[in-house]
Amino acid sequence: xxxxxxxxxxxxxxxxxxxxxxxxxxxxxxxxxxxxxxxxxxxxxxxxxxxxxxxxxxxxxxxxxxxxxxxxxxxxxxxxxxxxxxxxxxxxxxxxxxxxxxxxxxxxxxxxxxxxxxxxxxxxxxxxxxxxxxxxxxxxxxxxxxxxxxxxxxxxxxxxxxxxxxxxxxxxxxxxxxxxxxxxxxxxxxxxxxxxxxxxxxxxxxxxxxxxxxxxxxxxxxxxxxxxxxxxxxxxxxxxxxxxxxxxxxxxxxxxxxxxxxxxxxxxxxxxxxxxxxxxxxxxxxxxxxxxxxxxxxxxxxxxxxxxxxxxxxxxxxxxxxxxxxxxxxxxxxxxxxxxxxxxxxxxxxxxxxxxxxxxxxxxxxx
Length: 367
Fold this sequence. Notes:
This protein is mostly helical and about 375 residues long. The chain has helices spanning about 1-30, 30-55, 60-85, 85-95, 100-120, 120-130, 135-145, 145-175, 180-185, 195-235, 240-250, 255-270, 275-310, 315-350, 355-360.
C-alpha cells in the first residue's frame, strides 16, 4: 500500500515538473505575443481616461470613442518616430559622402585635443590612433558587403516594427472596446466566492496604473522640454530627437538618467568635431551637464514624488526599496516593472487578506 502511494506521489511530482517545464517552454516560444499584449495593455491604460472622457462628456458611442483614442495614440507614436527621420537621414547622407582620410584626420585631431586637455603624452595619442586605424577598418568592411548588410538589417527592423505596431494597435483597440467583456471572462475563471474581490481588484488596479502611466508620460515630457531647451541653447543639431531619446531612458530608474546623460555628452562632442576641444567643446559639455543636473533635480524632487504619492499611493522610500530589490533580482527589466507590479500586488493583498498587519501597514493610503 505504501509503495503504491509513493509511486503515485512520484508520478504526480513528475507530471507537475514536466508540465511546468512545458508551460515555460511555450511561454518562451510566444514571448513576442506576450510582449505585444503587455505593451497594448499599457497603451490601453494610457488611453482609458481619454475614452471615458469622450463617452461621458461628449456622449460619443463606445466604438467612436475608442477609434478616436487609437487615432490619437497612433498619431503620437508616428510623430515621435518622425522626430528621428532627420537624424537618420543626415547620418545616411554622411555615410554616402564618407571621406575616410578626412575622418581619420578629424579623429587624430580629436584624440590630440582630448589628451592635451588631460595632460597625456604624444606617444599615447599615436598608439590609440594606430589601434583605431579607421580607414583600413572601414575599407575592409566595405569590401565584405557592409552596405548590403546594413540595408538588409534596416529592412528587417522596419518589417518587424511594422508588424509589432499593427499587432499592438489591434490588441489595444479591443482592450479598450471590449474591456468589460474581457474582464468578465477572466473573472469567470475563478470560483464564484472570489469573483467580487477579483472584480474590485481589477477596477482599482486599472485606475491606479492609468494614473501611474499618465504621470510617467508627464515626467518624460518635463525632462524632454528641459533637455531640448538645453541642447537648443548649446547649438546641438536635432535637439528634439536627442532630447526625447535621453528623456525616454529615464524610464529605467536610477540607471536610465546616467545613460541619457552619456548620450547627450556623446552627441555634444560628435556635433562639434573639428572645433577646439578645450575652448569650445568642453564649455558646451559643461552647459549640457548643467541642463541634465537641473532636469534630474526637478525630476527627483518634484516629478517622481508627485507621481508615486498621487498615482500609486506609495511613499518614495517604499518605492526606492522595491526598485532596488527588483533590480537585484531581475535586472533592468525588474526595475522598470517594479512599481506597477508592486501596485498590483498591494491591491490584491488588500482585497484578500486585509486583516494582516503588514498588509494594513502597506495599504493604508489605498482607498
